Amino acid sequence: MIHAKALTRTFKGVPAVRGVDLDVHEGEIVGFLGPNGAGKTTTLRMLTTLLRPTSGTATVAGHDLVADPSGVRGSIGYVAQGGMFTPPSLIGAELLLQARLHGHSAREARRLVGEVLERVGLAGFERRSPASLSGGQARRADLALGLVHAPRLLFLDEPTNGLDPRARAELWDHIRGLRTTIFLSTHYLDEADALCDRVLIIDGGRIVASGSPADLKRDHAAATLDEVFLTVTGRPMAEAAA
Amino acid sequence: MTAFVVAAHYLRETFRHKFVIVFGVVQPALYLVFFGPVFTGSGVGDWDVLVPGLLMQLALLTCGLTGFNIVFDHRFGVLERLRVTPAGRFSLLVGRVLKDAVLLLVQAAALLGLALAFGLRASVPGVVAGLALVVTMALGLAALSYAAALTLGDGLFAPVMGTAVVPLLLLSGALLPMEGAPAWLDAVSLATPFRHVVDALRALFAGSSHGIGWAVLSVGLFLAVALPLATRVFNRENA
Question: What is the ipTM for the molecules in this complex?
């Protein structure tokens, strides 16, 4: 579903991502784990066509990232960090626009909006404003924006950032239940452990380890992904934020 | 096609918050009510000289400052979300600009209605042609305003553009015809497209077509600069 080779991105001469290879297969939930500043968001923004790679190649959902960004955009959903609504908007109207921009007719779009709201547990929330939602509900509304056109591949950037533990656990259940290929970034080790089939650990713009949470722990003789991170990078993740 | 979907979405949003529509007309309406009687009594001209200027004021204050709308979309990630769809960035810009043009037409109609009650008498085909001219010019104004908002960011847009529209308004001769201006001021004024539009509007309202050629030419030039420039800013990856 994603096949990337040697992706790099430099900002004004400063490298943020230094040669990332990654593969994500159909149906997988893959976590991109690393401290803040490790290059997670930059990589995600490249894979979602928002940033052009400085070098490297990638195929995303069957489309070449550089040659056919529009093809990529048509096949993916993207949920950015920290919300995607302007406060006075209506959830239904924004979802409708999103579906229409993905090329669906007005009628089809209305059907998709109803479906996606049900899928994220917000059935009947069309006329609600995002400002009136709880933190967990708001994140689910964001999720709906990424899902409304039923993409084959969904990108989530720090999906549970800032949520309380209960809302996080609830959102994990929702994400697991989506049954689509998901590539998500997170700096929560427990989130990677609980949610992901496979984890890629990124540090300093490079992938330093990858595997299922169980394999990573076994291979590094570690009890938690925290310890894996410590073994691989030589410092605890809490201190690694660049 | 996509641009119409975008325009329809933003029009629905705007009409849901009706105060935005009213708010845009308030300032020109205040000029009409509190300045109009003084203006028409001063011998400079009648309502058909003032109202064209107020239409320009309306366009500058609404379309010229419409970039403010995109500041929040930018900050809240809405812009990025729309960019990860197959809709072209040009359609996203044009859709917004079309919304502003339609909104301006509604507001201009309201202002003209009020002016009529105050005693505006003008050539009907002239007014229709004048509206077409102002709205066409406003397309470029709105596009530039979005480009400015994306370039200046949320901190600078309001103070910079809020200040910039004042000289543009004064230089257009909207509030007082430029006939009494010294040569240098007249020359500066003639370098802005807005002056030509105001002059043409006054002629059209009076039932003449004097200066229409210049106005159409300057609006054409303005659009030829504004639209590609705004498109470039919209296509910039970090905008």
Answer: 0.87
